[in-house]
TrEMBL record:
Protein name as it appears in the record: SFRICE_006732
InterPro entries (alphabetical): ER, GroES-like_sf, NAD(P)-bd_dom_sf, Zn_alcohol_dh
Phylogenetic classification of the source organism: Eukaryota, Metazoa, Ecdysozoa, Arthropoda, Hexapoda
Gene Ontology MF, one: metal ion binding
Lineage: superkingdom: Eukaryota
Pfam family, one: ADH_zinc_N_2
Keyword annotations from UniProtKB, A to Z: Metal-binding, Oxidoreductase, Zinc
Length: 382
């Protein structure tokens, strides 16, 4: 009989979180000829973006175990009044992605070793097309092109936050920088400009830190103002940690007109770029209202695919734009690893939980009860 290991799969949460977290045993995978087997140490709590349950869940989970798990989820006490699903989804505390940091357990006989990676090397996995279904204690990769070595001074728990949350934020900030450069140096150039970051969860917190670093080293750094629209009290406190950043709270009990006026006042007028990490129609509509003519709202792929058809005509009528930003490249991930390892970019706060507590972690994330990011621990290598 093959040796077994534990796998945790987090699917896209529904209104009541039924059948979105699964834990079961799977065979330890064989080492691929040209690739490697990875011993997963930490994994960021992200969910799979697809709407259907992964094939691995259907093939390895019994109907009775799924039914039992559903019963447990009903007792979680989820705040089901929140829409589109839960407040944690609205503010970006829980988002789709795949984040793994671990060590190389074994290498295929015909593998082409890159970047000095060997057995025992600490690595982070770039989320390539076709990543494994769920987080297992052991996963395999087809080759070394998706592996990024981690310096000794960078904790693996921090590295586990980089492949989706930090990388997506990095690419969003890079896209924003290109837009701002056109505003400052283009035909109708402005003397100064403002960028608004919307959100409170891990994506927005990464974006704030990365934007602060990026703009500080740009030639036009003194011409850019950063403002943050937070969706909860904790976000207000965290955002205020960064100096010279204006913060406005988007209290959902206030009228839309009041929130828009409050935001533009804090920003010194309409803004040119919004990094919108909120996931609701209301958040995107509000972001559009805060833009100056010709401005752009940047949204993630999952939000863009859902909301762009609804708002494309409105954006055109307002003479503003909505741009979808994909996850970043592996080159950006390598640079990000270096910057965080050197301490040039400080990661947002994170909490580590045993992988066995994944169900409870997702419940807390969906209710926005965890400050910063949540990381699942599979192995203890200390």
């Amino acid at each position: 009989m093959s040796k077994l290991c534990r796998q945790v799969s987090i699917e896209s949460p529904g209104p009541t979180l039924r059948e979105c977290v699964f834990s079961f045993d799977v065979p330890v995978p064989d080492v691929p000829m040209y690739g490697a087997r990875i011993r997963v140490v930490y994994a960021g709590a992200c969910y799979r973006a697809n709407k259907t349950r992964s094939a691995s869940v259907c093939s390895t989970s019994s109907i009775s175990s799924i039914g039992s798990l559903s019963g447990e989820m009903e007792n979680f006490g989820i705040h089901t009044h929140a829409t589109p699903a839960h407040i944690g989804l609205r503010d970006g505390a829980l988002f789709p992605g795949y984040e793994v940091a671990g060590v190389v357990d074994a290498i295929g006989k015909a593998a082409e070793r890159l970047d000095g990676i060997k057995e025992g090397s600490r690595i982070v996995l770039y989320p390539y097309e076709g990543v494994p279904n769920g987080y297992a204690e052991y996963i395999v990769v087809p080759d070394f092109k998706c592996l990024v070595p981690i310096p000794d001074q960078l904790p693996l728990s921090v590295a586990a936050m980089l492949p989706t949350g930090a990388l997506l934020a990095t690419n969003t900030v890079a896209t924003a920088a290109e837009c701002l450069k056109k505003v400052l140096d283009g035909p109708s150039k402005k003397e100064s400009t403002t960028v608004l970051i919307v959100g409170t969860g891990g994506l927005a917190l990464w974006a704030l830190r990365i934007a602060t670093h990026c703009f500080k080293h740009a030639s036009y750094n003194n011409r850019i103002r950063i403002c943050v629209a937070t969706l909860k009290d904790e976000g207000f406190i965290l955002a205020k940690e960064c100096e010279e950043v204006k913060v406005v709270q988007w209290n959902e009990d206030a009228y839309e007109k009041q929130l828009i006026e409050r935001t533009t006042d804090a920003c010194g007028g309409p803004v040119d770029v919004v990094l919108n990490f909120g996931t609701t129609s209301r958040s995107l509509h509000r972001s559009l209202q805060c833009l100056a003519p010709g401005g752009v709202v940047l949204v993630t792929e999952d939000v863009g695919e859902k909301l762009l058809p609804k708002f494309a005509k409105k954006a055109e009528d307002m003479n503003v734009h909505i741009e979808i930003v994909p996850n970043g490249s592996i080159e950006q991930l390598k640079e990000l690893v270096t910057l965080v390892a050197r301490g040039e970019i400080e990661p947002p706060p994170h909490s580590v939980f045993p992988a066995e507590e994944a169900q409870e972690v997702v419940r807390k994330l969906c209710n926005s009860e965890i400050t910063g990011r949540a990381i699942l621990k599979f192995h203890n290598i200390d």
